[in-house]
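From the pipeline queue, job 12 of 40. The input is one protein chain; the requested action is below.

Action: predict structure.
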Amino acid sequence: MLILSMAILPGCTEIRFKDNNIQNEEQYNTTKISVASFNIKIFGKTKASNDTVMASLVEIVSKYDIIAIQEIKDIDQEVPYEFLELLNNNSSIQFEMLLSERSGSQEDDRSSQEQYAILYNPELISVIDNGTLYNDSVNDSFQREPFLAHLSVKNTTLDFVLGVIHTKPAAAEDEIAALIDVFNWSAAHYDDEDVMIVGDYNADCSYFDEEDIFELEIGSAEFLWAIPNEADTNLASSNCTYDRMVLTGEIINNFNGTWGVDNTFSEKSISDHWPVWIELVIRID
């Protein structure tokens, strides 16, 4: 049964679709953080030169405690730093950023290189490891290798690995299936079973049959797909759940069932995707 939730982030739709897994939450002091994912279409110099678009992006990004950005296209790697400066000049929070190398390092992938960024509120989030691109040199499973970083929520019991992916649309099915290797590698590399991989999975419509999720290893009971199939995460007329947030480990119990699609804009000059987000509830240490 779907249960409507009363508390929402400004300008976001929200549904509570599963029971709160935080056991006896009232017995403990807890804190909440929001984690978001946003494919900012072709985020390069042209978009960065549009003051109206950039102002909208600042307003959107500043809502979240952590937000993973995909499709940074600036070959000179200047735009992410320019955006961070603009964000901090127009926000009460002084965000910090983890920026990947340009993904798509294999010879056959270099025409589609992009960067990932993780922006976060340092008052709430600590960085344990600055992050690395997944080493895809053996199997070449991804057009753009996922970016993974190890984070912790300050003054709480939660450390976790946050991964970001932008799959190749024509190979979405194979790349989504291959994410099991990334989850396993991340847990072993960081010695942390709490792993969340977010991003533009292209996990619906003509690229992927969402009914096949349960046939995947990351569709098993060990994983939680926090953005459900009924969500519409793109601005096109078709209802497609391209953008996903998949969790495994004990962090599943920190997800309180609150998720959202920030569909507050309709201008494709901003992006052709809406941000998706979830809320985590963490016990204060």
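Job complete. Residues 29-283 form a domain with the Deoxyribonuclease I; Chain A fold (CATH 3.60.10.10).
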